[in-house]
Amino acid sequence: MEIKRTKRIFPWVVAFSAVAVAFSAAFFSVFGLSKLFGGAELSVIIMAGSLEFSKLVVATFLYRYWDSVVRGLRYYLLLGVFILVAITSAGIFGFLSNAYQGATIEFEKQSTVLLYKGEQLAQLQEDKEFLKQEMNAAIAELPDNYITAKRSIRAEYNPKVLRTNDEMLAIKQEIGELKTKIVDTGVDVGPAIYLARAFNTDIDTVVKFFILILIFVFDPLAVSLVIAANIAFEKAMENDDKPREVTRKNRKFWEVYKDKKVPAIEPDLPTDVEFEEVNDTKRRDREEI
């Protein structure tokens, strides 16, 4: 009994999973295409939604009536399903890539600013070294007894060096704050960063391959599950149409415990031959008398 109940429930489980995957794929595809054609967003949503629904209906129709449809229409519908799967996959790619860019745009901005601040800090470090070298060269050109002149040269260069040090300190503080923000922002894309470092590549390449893997599985799986649901329901209906074997378990209680009828015993009646033999015997007895 439990096995039969499971067989009846399983087609609905397959159908529910097909609807869930198909709805998710349609949602991502429709909104991905609407972002691509932002000038007519509502129109694109209506058009793409109707195409997604018709794709599943056509897949079911082809499975059920493949042998009944003329060859031209059959292959046209089949080609349409494949094209719609490709369009859905493209819409999913656009949706996921847009979501990735939205999650990483702040991270990329902070990383770009950090690179700029690092270059600026390196430039200030070079300027500081150049000022020191220029000051030392100017002092070295003077004789040893020109102490006042040497002091004036130092007094001329020291404010420049100090100003450079202040600028370097301010940039270092900004770099520290940017690194902290990058750590906080990078939590959303932390796995992608880790994989990029593990495979010695950039984050965009890692995310691109992940999206490609998803779109190659997503919508084809939805169409396959729709066909699988049709197969499961057909098998369940075939099992229901088969005549059940009447056993003690599936009989009603009044059929099990009702009084059994004993067949009536019919008396043995003489045959026609026996009637003739009796009549002959009586005739001979009358003749002898």
Top keywords for this entry?
83% helix, mainly alpha
Descriptive notes:
By secondary structure, the chain is an all-alpha fold. The protein has one domain. The chain contains eight helices and no strands. The longest helix is centred in the middle third of the chain and has 71 residues. It is rod-shaped. The relative contact order is 0.10. The mean pLDDT is 76.
How would you concisely characterize the structure shown here?
With 289 residues, the chain is mainly α. The protein has eight helices and no strands. It has one domain (7-241).
Alpha plus pi helix count: 8
- Tell me the total number of β-strands: 0
Beta-strand share of residues: under 5%
What number of domains?
A: 1
Instruction: Report the end-to-end length measured between terminal Cα atoms.
Output: 82 Å
Mean pLDDT metric: 76
Radius of gyration: 46 Å
Tell me about the biggest sheet? none
Layout of helices and strands:
Elements: H1 2-36, H2 41-64, H3 71-141, H4 147-185, H5 190-198, H6 203-241, H7 253-257, H8 272-288
Helix pairs in contact: 1-2, 1-3, 1-6, 2-3, 2-6, 3-4, 3-6, 5-6
